Amino acid sequence: MHLLHEEGGDIKIATLITAAGAETDPLAVESLGGKRGKLKSKDVWLRFQCPSSMAIADFLPQAKIISDEIDLDFVWECAGPGEFQFLDLAKEYFGETASPLQQTALAIALQAAPIYFRRKGRGQFMRAPEDQLKAALLAVEKKKVELAKQASWETELRAGQLPEEIYPQVNALLFAPDKNTTAYKAVHAASQGLKGGIAELFLKCGVLGSALAYHEGKFLKEHFPKGVGFNVTMQPNEEADWQAALNQLPEAAVRAFSIDDASTTEIDDAFSVTQITGLSNCYRIGVHIAAPALAIGRGGALDQIARQRLSTVYYPGGKITMLPDQVIDVFSLHAAVSGIKDQENDINDTDELPLRPAVSLYVTIDAEGLPILEGEHAPKTKVERVPMAHNLRLDDLEDLVTEESLADTSNAAQLPYQQELAVLWRSAKQLHALRQAQRVANGLRAEVLGLPDPQALARDFNFTVIDGIVEIKPRQRGSVLDSIVAEWMIYCNSTWGNQLANHSVPGIYRVQKGWGPQRTRMQTMPGPHEGLGVENYSWCTSPLRRYVDLVNQWQLIAMAQHGVTAKLVAPFKPKDADLMAIAADFDGTYAAYGEHQNQMERYWCLMYLKQLGLPWKGVVRHLKEGQARVEEVPLRLNVPELAEQARGARAEIEVLEVDYLALEASVRYLGLIDSGVDAEMIFQNEIDAEVESQSKEESEAQPEQKTDEQDISPDAHSGTPQ
């Protein structure tokens, strides 16, 4: 005797092994596979004897063949409106003499057709309502059409052709796909086997212009989903109202000049140097910072834009500014003369110089170049209009301005602002020395002022991209001009951080203390920056390019204008939750922007090697654990053969192929050149390791071109291209 039953949704057969006349419940049975078990009588759908002409193992396969031929539509018509037993329906369909094989075939057909029949019990069914059946059949037909379309699209995609219907969905499929759509399923299936996945498939089809377009598109989709344009319209009289308000500010009695790269458009800072009458060899240094906070109010349309973006995004070949061009044009510290080639057009009359609104820090230095911190000459903060005389350009001057050229008075005609730069350099050296003393007290190694060892790896580079061709040149760190800007920006940020703390005016501070993942962070409580060697450090010198600086500028203006009552009138009051949220949001967004810049620099480094010709042979230096850096460009490569070598070991390698989507290169190790490591190289690599552990901390101005080996302490300023 054989028993038909259901198990796990499938129709199965078991053989009864209970002795004749001794049948009990549950029944002792043996499956077709030979496994013995128990089966309750109520779970048995049908008891039957297998025809002598058929082996029991062939019974279900034969029943399945018959079930495939059953007309479900006709069966549905035969079934009444109520519940029924499959045995009864078998008689209706096959006739009164329906065999066990036919009965089993119908059971299989009913069980496998849930859109036609609903299970109501063991062997019990009920036909689906007509309207639901029609809807289900339409869905099935639609599914067949979609599967056919998917197969057709997949065939076209594999052949390198993009179906016309998919074209409008390209960006969505790349960056935010709906995985339930037919288009995604076709694209995903066609991209199987391609290392670069869907992006590589679209490159093959010619709808993705380049790997660069993919990397940029991915970043923009995540951080600028509505585009990089500004959804704000300046009112016709808005700039005029700004200018009217700014004209009420007092005019500074100085001639200011900035120091920036030639490509800088957001000029945040400038200097002035004035000799103090009655104090021998003493000067008043003015650090003047652009003041967009005078026109941008908390909660306004421009504030909302800046709050959302949080920073200007820099990457080789372009940037996405935090503020609209109309704001930058009004508040950037553009001068009457740019560069040194226009010296003959210099304006001597201060009345003719453009006046730019600024928040200024005035510091009096003594004959040694040290700031005077007490009395009437203590540092002062003012909100004013500053006459801008020059925008000096590093491209023109950096190689000309040296300690020797500043000391030689015969260079005055060729070297603009020689005396002022000499004063700034003398004071920068003193400021640096004070910071290093504090660094040593913090348990850190003192840093050396000046240019790095020429044998050390270059750590900063300028990327110039024109029509897809990239030029990469080392950027000089530690030059006189670079050090002047860096030291005075650090001093300015530190002094303003101290002033905010002393006046109990809330602000956002850049704190570096202790070790671990949160060693360097943004927070609303004052705290030391151990790497810089300062008591408090608050980013304030780049308000055109960083939202944190704009927020702090609001607070500084309140402090400068209201003194001890500033905390009562400042836009952000003590324990303002929004201020804490800004600090947290800025850290994450700033890191994401920096990572995009790093990716783009890596892309252009790989493209640079392609320009030189692949395969490309060159020299790398071992950093650690098989990671090496190409000497001439800031490109890190994986060279496992160097894993056991000392840091600084030099080796020759060959780059065979480049994957621009994965930003990886296939590297062949050719041999060791030099395994010796001098003290300078050891120190350099210790910096690299420390930088990695601190998430590439830290650059004051986030230069447009930075490298993986960003310096840990010089918050370097805006003298880099912006």
Kindly summarize this structure in a few lines.
With 722 residues, the chain is an alpha+beta fold. Among the domains are: 2-128, no CATH class; 145-209, no CATH class; 595-693, no CATH class. The model is unreliable at 679-722 (pLDDT under 50).
Written description of the protein model:
With 722 residues, the chain is an alpha+beta fold. Among the domains are: 2-128, no CATH class; 145-209, no CATH class; 595-693, no CATH class. Helix content is 35%, strand content 21%. The chain contains 20 helices and 25 strands. Strands 9, 10, 11, 14, 15 and 16 form a six-stranded mixed beta sheet that branches. A five-stranded antiparallel beta sheet has the order 4-3-2-1-5. β12 and β13 form a beta hairpin. α3 crosses α4 and α15 (418-441) packs across α16 (480-502). It is elongated and about 125 Å long. The model is unreliable at 679-722 (pLDDT under 50).
Uncertain residue segments: 679-722
Percent helix, as a range, is 25-40%
Distance between the termini: 89 Å
By oligomeric state, this entry counts as single chain
The count of helical stretches stands at 20
Question: How many strands?
Answer: 25
Quickly give the structural class.
alpha+beta
Biggest beta sheet attributes: 6 strands, mixed
Query: Average pLDDT across residues?
Result: 86
The global form is elongated
